């Protein structure tokens, strides 16, 4: 609506948008959507400029440290082998578009994030098993059974899109129908009940429904069976929180989350890749917890000149020349880690055990050491990317310094703090974040801090001093 008269009254000024909600920006995002955010305590705050990036990093670290047991100096018992079912809502609630989760439907968005979750899950838990259950039309069906095969899980996720597209709604019933939480929990619970007790049994529910259509009572029928089988249930709501989901998650010692945006959804799924603290095992005559001895075999990789039959996933045989020989029955298996198709022995490699073991001794969170660095024009021009710099053939030993005596560069990547901000033309007096290890007191940048805690799971400063 314009106060000007005439035919040209509705034209916008050439200087730009008149209101904040009219500004779409260069990338199609409104400025008021990016500047109005939520802090770690749930309060609405206005963020603008480079300070919003720093504040977002601090808020993320604060949320992670709330559930970080390494910060509290606690040694927890975690199960190295996990059996996890992901109950995915495919009802009509998931087939609608969400303005917070553009550009497609909620189901398309969550399938893309589940691809990343599957990859991260098997990277962090190579000895564990994963399965998917699809819930639609008030019924639950197993999409993929529990398996440690990464390829089969990704292929199953890719098949959901064509499956949903082939379905069509009628004039009396919308496509997808209603969501049934009880049926999803019952199907997953019956399958997890047959799994060994030396591993953790978990169910991850991802739903956007605002109601659940169940044949019975979840609190009086399903919940007691889940607690008796030591099954942990975690729920994540894409639309709004359901009280029954929070009740089941709290009673089974799981977690509950509500989606804020796509980044928050990705972060919550990332947290599910870390094994939760295990339930207290039964004790025998007061002699402490009962430990199970799990037999594992280290197979031998063989390459034959002539293709032969090899046991694949889910009792399938394929033709191939490269296989892994079981040390017990000498049968040929296609991939690792896997259970031997003949004798059932768990076949693993030493890196699989190492990647599963690091959850027991996590790296302690680093403490923030913030500095204000005054950037001048000369400094900005003198700092370039580390990939462009060429090292001299011979360096004078008198000018060599170690990262222990120099607090201006990162101990891991050896880049000066704030290099990225200055290359991108950051403002003067920008806040440069540094983090220090509480054990070795080495300094790290933001990128290395995330890499060490999420991927490497080791502190290079502590390892260097240990040797």
TrEMBL record:
It is found in: Nucleus. Residues 437-457 form the C2H2-type domain. GO terms for molecular function: zinc ion binding. A zinc finger (C4-type) spans 326-343. Residues 1-13 have a biased composition (Gly residues). Residues 1-30 are annotated as: Disordered. GO terms for biological process: DNA-templated transcription; nucleotide-excision repair; regulation of transcription by RNA polymerase II. The keyword Nucleus applies. InterPro entries: C1-like_sf, Ssl1-like, TFIIH_C1-like_dom, TFIIH_SSL1/p44, vWFA_dom_sf, Znf_C2H2_type, Znf_RING/FYVE/PHD. It holds the Pfam family Ssl1. Its main location: nucleus. It comes from the Eukaryota. One of its GO terms (cellular component) is transcription factor TFIIH holo complex. Keywords: DNA damage, DNA repair, Metal-binding, Nucleus, Transcription, Transcription regulation, Zinc, Zinc-finger. Belongs to the GTF2H2 family. This is C2H2-type domain-containing protein. It comes from Amphora coffeiformis. The lineage of its organism: Eukaryota, Sar, Stramenopiles, Ochrophyta, Bacillariophyta.
């Amino acid at each position: 609506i314009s106060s000007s008269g005439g035919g040209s009254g509705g034209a916008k000024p050439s200087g730009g948008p008149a209101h904040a909600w009219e500004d779409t920006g260069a990338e199609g995002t409104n400025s008021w959507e990016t500047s109005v955010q939520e802090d770690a305590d749930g309060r609405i705050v206005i963020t603008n400029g480079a300070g919003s990036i720093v504040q977002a990093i601090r808020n993320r670290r604060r949320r992670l440290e709330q559930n970080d047991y390494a910060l509290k100096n606690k040694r927890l018992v975690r199960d190295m082998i996990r059996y996890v079912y992901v109950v995915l809502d495919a009802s009509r609630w998931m087939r609608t578009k969400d303005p917070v989760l553009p550009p497609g439907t909620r189901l398309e968005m969550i399938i893309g994030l589940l691809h990343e979750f599957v990859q991260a899950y098997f990277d962090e838990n190579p000895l564990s098993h994963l399965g998917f259950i699809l819930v639609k039309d008030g019924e639950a069906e197993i999409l993929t059974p529990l398996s440690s095969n990464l390829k089969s899980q990704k292929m199953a996720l890719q098949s959901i899109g064509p499956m949903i597209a082939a379905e069509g709604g009628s004039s009396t019933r919308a496509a997808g129908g209603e969501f049934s939480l009880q049926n999803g929990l019952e199907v997953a619970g019956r399958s997890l009940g047959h799994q060994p007790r030396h591993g953790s049994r978990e169910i991850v529910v991802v739903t956007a429904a605002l109601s659940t259509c169940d044949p019975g009572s979840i609190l009086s029928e399903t919940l007691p069976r889940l607690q008796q089988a030591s099954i942990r249930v975690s729920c994540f709501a894409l639309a709004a929180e359901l009280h029954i989901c929070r009740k089941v998650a709290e009673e089974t010692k799981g977690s509950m989350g509500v989606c804020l945006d796509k980044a928050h959804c990705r972060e919550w799924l990332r947290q599910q890749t870390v094994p939760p603290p295990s339930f207290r095992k039964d004790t025998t005559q007061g002699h402490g917890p009962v430990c199970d001895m799990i037999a594992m075999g280290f197979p031998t990789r063989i390459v034959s000149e002539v293709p032969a039959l090899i046991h694949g996933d889910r009792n399938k045989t394929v033709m191939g020349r490269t296989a892994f020989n079981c040390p017990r029955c000498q049968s040929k298996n296609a991939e690792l880690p896997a259970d031997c198709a003949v004798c059932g022995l768990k076949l693993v490699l030493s890196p699989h055990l190492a990647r599963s073991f690091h959850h027991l001794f996590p790296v302690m969170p680093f403490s923030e050491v913030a500095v204000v660095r005054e950037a001048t024009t000369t400094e900005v021009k003198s700092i370039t990317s580390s990939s462009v710099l060429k090292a001299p053939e011979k360096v004078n030993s008198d000018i060599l310094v170690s990262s222990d005596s120099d607090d201006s560069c990162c101990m891991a990547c050896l880049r000066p703090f704030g290099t990225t901000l200055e290359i991108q033309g950051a403002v003067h007096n920008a806040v440069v974040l540094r983090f220090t290890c509480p054990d070795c007191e080495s300094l790290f940048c933001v990128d290395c801090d995330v890499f060490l805690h999420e991927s490497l799971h080791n502190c290079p400063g502590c390892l260097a001093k240990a040797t």
